[in-house]
Automatic annotation (TrEMBL), chain A:
The keyword Transmembrane helix applies. Residues 1-38 are annotated as: Disordered. GO terms for cellular component: plasma membrane. This is Multiple sugar transport system permease protein. One of its GO terms (biological process) is transmembrane transport. It is found in: Cell membrane. InterPro entries: MetI-like, MetI-like_sf. It holds the Pfam family BPD_transp_1. It is a multi-pass membrane protein.
TrEMBL record, chain B:
The lineage of its organism: Bacteria, Bacillati, Actinomycetota, Actinomycetes, Jiangellales. Pfam families: SBP_bac_8. This is Multiple sugar transport system substrate-binding protein. Residues 1-26 form the signal peptide. The keyword Transport applies. Keywords: Signal, Sugar transport, Transport. Gene3D superfamilies: Periplasmic binding protein-like II.
Length: 337, 417
């Protein structure tokens, strides 16, 4: 895309990135990076070190208590066999990676992985596409656009349990409004939540609706950062609206888009409530994702199975981490070019 | 890298703030841990719907007054309660008394965190053996049922009359299916039940499973397949709505209250609601496959006493347990909970004297069976998960009842080992 119109796109991209990235990097650059200051600091290192440690201690304690320890505990749970008895007595048998082997070789794993991938990627792709379309639409301020934009935020304001319950009523096979509308068009009953072929689709639809406001808000903010004169210049060059979108808006939104997609990915990977309320991962396992599986092991049956739950949870963390690194890698590469 | 410095600073500020708040709350909460003072006894139950001003809370408090102590009551959601209890036991500060959903008793007993009733010197012989059984592990009773409920078939009298069905004629599966056929032919809906993929799904399926003569150790027996084929057959014939696959017991009840269903499988806890329905209702026992009454699973809570480091506390705990389980106490509990059937013969007699209309339910409870009985204990939750998954797969059509149950049996065996 860029190669076809090097003038506009190439020039603006640098500007755009400056607009988005500069503010956070500005102050820190002055503080840490200046070489003369560094030298000066090193010379009087001894005295303020304790003071510095004192200032950083609350943060370290916070990170240790609320992040490092729970993470360690989760790994610990997954490497042992924590039956309820072992959990109380504190004498679980060490299993090594046996829990991981069990999970990965289990019949349910392939399906859960496929469901997780479908649920996550279809959800964020659709959320992003619709969110971007709406953001561009609202960017042209028109009468009532503020009000309408506000209404699009409603899914975000509702507690998830409310949204998910409402969706499950709407998609009810016998009495749901969705089926009654379809029937008036002559389409027969679709068992949205109770057919193994539809259950995953149904929860994806509900999740897309829930995720649109998040994408809309962030992308809309990103659009505000694109200087108006670029559009003027493009218009003078004779670019159509469509060309303006693909050659100006879309490339300049790339950093914002990347962050939106990454955040979307992470919070879609871990969705439990919507699926649990609508289908409990069923029928059978047909809408079970890794997150649902983990939740079911720990809280969904009469007997808590902490070890398999932690194992599946850790796999999810690893998956999210991998995508985080992919994001960082792509961003670095982009900055270098 | 420099990009991160601003967020990091923000996080550190927020972190400091959170730590301060956490520190404050830690200080203020340190003196009301579960191991309270010598004249305060802690009590956990799974009834968050009953707040401090409720009859139930006052009943609990009265038992404390009688024993000369204050009871501090905390209510949790049923599933959260099991996890909270395990956590507390791990930390060594279990409450003095926990009211536990009956299948959880064997799990916690197996974890070694409950005392036996004989250690307390409490005589459990006056309680109905079938109800007590759910709390018995290896011959020892780890709790006392404070009441019980179970499942039956509610019917809509208007619909049955219109279709010319006499509820008394329903004595086995065949006559029930014939009744459904008549009702549906008359333009109404047949039956609704809960086949959701949780414990509720297994709970609702068990009367048919046991009613066919199947055994939980043998999920793929021909009897079990027959029970699942009965449900599947109703779905295929349109006697039961497709929504049952996802129905919880509450949703089922809401469907029944619309007045469009002839039958609903539901529990003792709906007796009041059924009486207030906009149409006349009635109750029949769930029939067995070839006649007779099917065994139904018991629901309801057990009063249990977790192990304490300070054994001196047991004396008062025993008094509180006794207060809750006298015949009058059981009837009071039954009335407080809008029909919880007492767990002793004497209590049942007294309840029937006050409410003769509950006859069917008392009979159903006498005939019921604990899910963890037959020495299943902690194996039950694993078997149950396999069972409800099979029910879901068969009803949704992704597997035949026979294949689904065969898979369930091999999964359950693999889980139990």
């Amino acid at each position: 895309m860029r190669s076809t119109s090097p003038k506009t796109a190439g020039g603006t991209e640098a500007d755009g990135r400056e607009a988005v990235v500069t503010p956070p990097s500005g102050p820190s650059g002055g503080r840490v990076d200046g070489p003369p200051e560094n030298v000066a600091r090193r010379s009087r290192l001894r005295e303020p070190r304790w003071a510095a440690l004192g200032f950083i201690a609350p943060l370290l304690a916070y990170l240790a208590i609320f992040y490092a320890y729970p993470l360690y505990r989760n790994v610990d749970l997954s490497l042992h066999d924590y039956t309820p008895r072992a959990f109380v007595m504190g004498n679980p048998e060490f299993l090594g990676l046996a829990n991981y082997v069990d999970v990965v070789t289990s019949d349910a794993f392939g399906l859960a992985l496929r469901n997780t991938a479908l649920f996550t990627f279809v959800s964020i792709a659709a959320q992003y596409a619709v969110g971007l379309a709406l953001a561009v639409f609202f960017h042209n301020n028109f009468r009532l656009s503020g009000l309408l934009r506000g209404m699009f935020l409603i899914p975000w304001l509702l507690p998830w349990i409310v949204s998910a319950s409402t969706w499950s009523w709407m998609m009810n096979s016998e009495n749901g409004i969705v089926n009654s509308v379809l029937e008036s068009f002559g389409i027969g009953q679709i068992n949205w939540l109770t057919s193994p072929d539809w259950a995953l689709t149904s929860v994806i639809i509900a999740n897309i609706w829930l995720g649109i406001p998040f994408n809309l808000v962030i992308l809309y903010a990103g659009l505000q950062n694109i200087p108006k004169d670029l559009y003027e210049a493009a218009a003078l060059d004779g670019a159509s609206v469509w060309q303006q979108f693909w050659r100006v808006t879309f490339p300049l939104l790339r950093p914002v888009s990347a962050v939106t997609l990454l955040l979307g990915l992470i919070y879609t990977l871990k969705v439990v409530d919507v699926i649990w309320i609508m289908t409990t991962g069923g029928p059978g396992n047909s809408s079970t994702t890794l997150a649902i599986w983990s939740y079911r092991e720990a809280f969904g049956t009469g007997q808590p199975e902490f070890s398999p739950a932690a194992t599946v949870g850790n796999l999810l963390i690893v998956i999210a981490l991998v995508f985080g690194f992919v994001h960082l890698y792509l961003q670095r590469r982009q900055e270098r070019t | 890298m420099k990009r991160f410095s601003t967020p990091v600073r923000a996080v550190s500020a927020a972190g400091t703030a959170v730590l301060c708040i956490a520190g404050l709350s830690a200080c203020s909460s340190s003196d009301d841990s579960a191991q309270a003072g010598s004249d305060t006894y802690t009590w956990w139950d799974p009834y968050p719907q009953h707040d401090e001003s409720s009859d139930w809370a006052q009943r609990v408090a009265a038992c404390g007054d009688e024993a000369g102590v204050t009871i501090e009551r905390t209510a949790y959601d049923t599933t959260a309660l099991t996890n909270q209890a395990l956590l507390a036991a791990q930390e060594g500060n279990s409450p003095d008394i926990i009211l536990l959903d009956n299948p959880a008793v064997s799990t916690l007993a197996d974890a070694g965190m409950l005392t036996t009733m004989s250690e307390f010197g409490l005589d459990t012989s006056r309680f109905d053996e079938n109800l007590l059984a759910a709390g018995v592990v290896g011959g020892d009773a780890y709790g006392i049922p404070i009441g019980a409920n179970t499942l039956s078939l509610y019917y809509n009298k208007t619909i049955l009359d219109a279709a010319g069905v006499d509820p008394a004629s329903i004595t086995d599966w065949q006559s029930l299916t014939a009744a459904l056929e008549k009702v549906v032919a008359n333009g109404d809906k047949g039956i609704t039940f809960a086949g959701i993929g949780t414990e509720e799904g297994s709970f609702q399926f068990l009367p048919w499973f046991w009613g066919a003569g199947a055994d939980l150790r043998d999920l793929d027996s021909p009897e079990a397949v027959a029970a699942l084929e009965l449900w599947k057959g109703w779905l295929d014939a349109g006697y039961a709505p497709n929504t049952v696959i996802n129905n919880s017991q509450n949703t089922t009840w809401e469907e029944f209250l619309t007045g469009r269903f002839a039958f609903a499988e539901n529990g003792t806890w709906q007796v009041n609601s059924a009486a207030e329905a906009e149409f006349p209702t009635g109750v029949i026992q769930i029939p067995g496959r070839d006649g007779g009454v099917a065994q139904t699973p018991t629901g309801g809570e057990f009063i249990t006493a977790p192990v304490q480091e300070d054994e001196a506390r047991y004396d008062v705990t025993k008094q509180i347990v006794e207060c809750m389980t006298t015949p009058e106490g059981l009837v009071k509990t039954a009335n407080t909970f809008a029909y919880y059937i007492p767990s002793t013969q004497a209590g049942q007699k007294e309840l029937l004297a006050q409410h003769p209309e509950l006859e069917t339910w008392v009979e159903a409870v006498r005939n019921a069976k604990g899910r963890t009985s037959d020495d299943l204990g902690t194996d039950y939750p694993k078997i149950s998960e396999a069972l409800w998954t099979a029910v879901q797969k068969a009803l949704s059509g992704s597997m035949s009842p026979k294949d689904a149950l065969a898979e369930a049996q091999s999964n359950a065996e693999a889980e139990i080992e």
